Each structure stands twice: as C-alpha cells, then as structure tokens.
Amino acid sequence: MRIISGQYKGRRITAPKKLPVRPTTDMAKESLFNILNNQFYFDDISVLDLFAGTGNISYEFASRGTEQITAVDENYGCIKFINSTSEDFEMPITTIKSDVYKYLERANQKFTIIFADPPYDFPVEEFSKIPQLVFQNELLEDEGLLIVEHSKHTNLSHLEHYSHSKSYGGNMFSFFNK
C-alpha cells in the first residue's frame, strides 16, 4: 500500500502478511479522498478510524495534515503495526486496542469524520450497528460524516442517516450524516 498524497506522498508501507486485514485499494482510497478534499480542510478536522487494520486510512489523513486521529482495532498485531509506522513517520495517530462496538458505546469525543472498514463478510446487522451507535452516542460533529466501507454486494441504503453511496470496483463507500 502507498500513501496517495500529502507530506508522505508516494511512500510505500508494507504490512506483515500475518495481519488479518484487507487494506482499502489505492484506487478506492484516492477516489474517497478526492471527495473529502472538496468538503474538508484536513488540518482542521478530527478523525476516528474504526477497524483500522494496517492504518492505511489513518496514514492518508496524517499525510494530509490531520493532527487528531484515533485508530481503533481489536487485533494487537494491527495496533502494534500502526504504532510502529506512525512513530517512524512521526504521525499524530492515537491507537486504541478495543472491540469497535464496545469503543463506540463508551466513547465521549466527537469527530469530524468517522471511517469504518469492517470485514466485508459481516452480516448487515453488524454493519447497521455502526451508524446506530455513532448517532445514538452523538459522536459526529454537526457537519461531520460517517463513511462505511463495504462490498458492493452489501446494501446499507435502508439505514437511518444514510445519505448516498459511491462504488469503486468491488468496494463501496456508504456516507451517513445528521
């Protein structure tokens, strides 16, 4: 995986093969950040990266100047890798080793962007818990955005606060807001 833009543009990051992850493709990531670039000033926002995996999305935000990034994953190897990589690049990423749903139940900070990339094989019920907990616990700022990455075979358009989806190959991003 590589960082698409910003201070670390072009830098390649190689994650250990043993991590249970499926990083967002470069094409999908570039398209997503083109959308976000038109809506946000990256140095003025706070980001929550759920199911952070390799930290791919967190690194992209950090490279573009975001100073407040929290990455949550329950896998110790993923957290260790994100910590090591963010330390090497001197990126301001705070990691939390936790089950994402438990974290969302007890979180008390608001974020501008919440990005969730759960396993694609999750049942729709598991996907639906993410926006439910985010909005129930008021974790998004007023103009904030929740983005859930999923397979094109998963439909989230029936969920409350759903705005729209964008498809990139087999990847899909569903956007939710207040």
TrEMBL record:
<dbReference type="Pfam" id="PF03602">
    <property type="entry name" value="Cons_hypoth95"/>
</dbReference>
<dbReference type="InterPro" id="IPR002052">
    <property type="entry name" value="DNA_methylase_N6_adenine_CS"/>
</dbReference>
<keyword id="KW-0808">Transferase</keyword>
<dbReference type="GO" id="GO:0032259">
    <property type="term" value="P:methylation"/>
</dbReference>
<dbReference type="GO" id="GO:0008168">
    <property type="term" value="F:methyltransferase activity"/>
</dbReference>
<dbReference type="InterPro" id="IPR029063">
    <property type="entry name" value="SAM-dependent_MTases_sf"/>
</dbReference>
<protein>
    <submittedName>
        <fullName>RsmD family RNA methyltransferase</fullName>
    </submittedName>
</protein>
<keyword id="KW-0489">Methyltransferase</keyword>
<dbReference type="InterPro" id="IPR004398">
    <property type="entry name" value="RNA_MeTrfase_RsmD"/>
</dbReference>
